[in-house]
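Students often ask why we bother encoding 3D structure as a string. The short answer is that it lets us treat folding as translation between two languages. Here is a chain of 370 residues written in the first language.
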Amino acid sequence: MKVKFILLLTILIFSVAFAQSNIEQKFNMLHEVKTTPVKSQGKTGTCWSFATSSFLENELIRLGKDELDISEMFTVRYKLVPMAEKYIRYHGTSNFGSGGQAHDVFDVIKKHGIVPEEVYSGKNIGLDYHNQAEMSSVLQGMLDGVLSSKDKITPNWKKSIEAVLDIYLGTPPSNFKYKGKNYTPKSFADETGIDSDNYIELTSYTHQPFYEKFNLQLPDNWTNNEYYNIPINELIAIMDNSIENGYSIAWDGDTGKDNFDRKEGIAIVSENKEIIEEDELAKEKQITQKDRQEAFENFDVTDDHLMNIVGIAENQEGTKFYYTKNSWGSKNKKYDGFWYMSEQYVRLKTIAILVHKDIIPDKIKASLKI
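And here it is in the second language, the structure alphabet:
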């Protein structure tokens, strides 16, 4: 009886702690950016490439170009080689893996170009979905093996890394034909009209001065890129101005702990964990700059996922939500692969954003000197 009582009490406490409203969120779309279909990153950590490629696909639509399905794995393929080089040069103390940041896509475009998905799918091991678990293990083992050698390191290790990438992802094309025209990856990128200099990354943390750039110290920022630092209210203003004017946002943030409801497809920051009335929606905590900083400092918020924000909606109580395109596929998802993140969730969980600099309000531009 005592065991049963303890079990029942535990269940009751758990239920109270995680109770949420039974009322379903109903959304009214206020602004929506036209986007391409949802894709799946499969069993990979390449959300950064999917989110930023989606962002670029939206940009091409906004610019009046034909809809394009960009190859995410072309970018991944060319990002992994310099990442491996840095890992070796830093004797294994820098980050190596499938993770990355939005600027990694632009770095690859500048050096190597882009290609359509139909030209380079990155599915070279007989699967109809992306799975890079084995490839990642092989690459990591090779790099650590090179570093563990007691002899001088030869130049051949890099060729070996390239060979493994070609085996698992496919050899990237030096030229290809698309819609009856011949291209190189660089000439194809040039024809899209995408200018990397038009896009900037912004963040919002108080351990560095506002209106200056700093190296955002994240494991996946392996290139040590600098981000513009601004107050969170101004970051939100930029996001709203972007969506309202037809520009989407590459969003880097945290979806890995609490508040991100994978079943319901929504993300909120509940004010408390008490049981609420059945006819009420959960009340949210109002997030401050201090809340953001504390969550960043204690690792409650980390950069575990990138997505593409493509709209602004409101629920039946007028609460603002950001309509967000994910890269976990569209099957068996409540909103067909899209998610609704509340403004308070975004205020707390945003690590950084990438936007077109034209949508930054003039007053903020002047403060940033851009």
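Translate back mentally: Residues 1-19 have pLDDT under 50 and may be disordered. Keep this in mind for the problem set.
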